[in-house]
C-alpha cells in the first residue's frame, strides 16, 4: 500500500511526464489521447482511464479518447458518476460504485471511480474518468494529483 509521501512523489512524476508529453503539441485530440494513455500506463490498479466530452447542444457526454475496455458511448448529465461530475462540475470520488445511485455499469469489474471536471475558460469541456477494480482505490490525494495534471493539460491544449 502506498503512503501519502510515495503518492505525492508519484503525482510529481505524473505532472512532469504530462508537461514533457505535451511539449510542442497543442492539438486537443492528440493531447487527450496521449494523456489517457499516460495515465492508464503509469497509474496502478486502473481498468479504465479516459475522457467523456460535452456537447454544446445537449446535456450529454460523448465518449472521447480513452484506454481500457470498450465503454458506454453516451452518458446523460442526469445519470451515473460522470453525469454527476458534469452536472456539478465537482470532483466525484466514489469508493463503491455499486452503492452510487444511478451508477452506469459499463464494466462490471469496476468497483471504485474518480471523475474530474475539465473546465476551459469557465466552461465544462469534458470529464476525466478513472475506474478501478479495487474498492476505495481513490483518495483525495489522487484527486489533487489528477487536478494538477489536468491543469497542465488544459493550459497546454488548443480546444475547439
Description:
The chain is α+β, with helices and mostly antiparallel strands and 160 residues long. Helix content is 37%, strand content 28%. The chain has helices spanning 4-22, 28-42, 80-88, 140-155, and strands at 48-55, 58-68, 74-76, 92-94, 112-120, 123-132. Strands 3-2-1-6-5-4 form a six-stranded antiparallel β-sheet, sandwiched between helices. The longest helix has 19 residues, at 4-22. The radius of gyration is 15 Å and the shape is globular. The chain starts with a helix and ends in a 5-residue tail after the last helix.
Element pattern in H and E: HHEEEHEEEH
How many strands, what sense, and barrel or not for the largest sheet?
6 strands, antiparallel
* CATH architecture designation: 2-Layer Sandwich
Q: Can you tell me the number of structural domains?
A: 1
Shape: globular
* Percent strand: 25-35%
CATH topology: Beta-Lactamase
User: How many strand units?
Assistant: 6
CATH superfamily, by name, is: GAF domain
- Could you report the average pLDDT, rounded to the nearest whole number? 93
Q: What structural class do helix, strand and pairing data support?
A: alpha+beta
Compute the separation of the termini in Å: 40 Å
The first-level CATH class name: Alpha Beta
Indicate the radius of gyration in whole angstroms. 15 Å
Task: Please give the count of helices.
Answer: 4
Strand order of the largest sheet: 3-2-1-6-5-4
